[in-house]
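ugh ok fine here u go
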Amino acid sequence: MREKIQQLGGFLAGMVIPNIGAFIAWGLITALFIPTGWVPSAHFAKLVGPMIIYLLPLLIGYTGGKMVHGVRGGVVGAAVTMGVIVGSDIPMFLGGMIMGPVGGYCMKKVDDMLEDHVPVGFEMLVNNFSAGFLITILVLVAMQVVSPVVTGVSNKAGMIVDMLIKARLLPLAAIIIEPAKILFLNNALNHGVLAPLGVVAAKNTGHAVHFLLETNPGPGLGLLCAFFFVGKGMLKQSAPGAMVIHFLGGIHEIYFPYVLAHPVMLLSMICGGFCADLWFVISGAGLVATPSPGSIFAYLAVIPPGQHFQVLTGVAIGAVVTFLVGSFILKLYPVRDEEEAE
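structure:
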């Protein structure tokens, strides 16, 4: 089981790690130019949506296909990833991770089947048309089948979180929220479930704990610190820049690839989120609105009077617990050398 988990982690790492530079670039652009960013610019902020909706999933799809069947597999992987992108209104990183390798694998099988049956001189023609026909089929399947399934997973996660909150088991929501976040379903959960519940709760008390559950920058900071102090390779080297973008800029998506590259680290995120949420419930913490983006500065702007200790202590608890658990995990299950080589 451990070997299979490591193989999965290595394969995910191979799709994610080569594209971390693009994630950092998107994070910087978002942190700088969105309306609540450091230097707001409506013109440059036009880059934010297309990059997260199209560019980043396509890069992952291309990389996944290339890992299976070279550049030819990468082209098919990227093309069929468009099916899941167009079929949904949420960022389809999970869809890219599925359809990229599937497209590369199918292209490999088709090429193997045709290898000894193509007349001399017709190789390019057959190669181009076989790829074209395969892409046409797979992109339709991705749009009609895979995309609704991934969207359904997002909706189910939101329903479970809603159920846990209504059952007064709020800290347990971290078990759903943290895995959903690293699959880039964070905005769907926050704006589709938690924010509406928070608005209703805030009418009575002036603040709501719901605004703290998904937006807490503490666990992400702890995760990146663990990679910086205990990790190695590209994940270690890029962690400091990611810390700035995440904690000060509020772009949580920047740390998601780190978990995808080493999936066992999800346990540290769940532990940190659970402990922080438990503290928020015990101390009666809350915010007056959803912080946007989820940076420490945005937090300071929406903390109600008299709540600074409760809220900031919860952020610190999330960071410390995630760092300690993450460091222990990285020592027990270090990032493998082949993952770095990818």
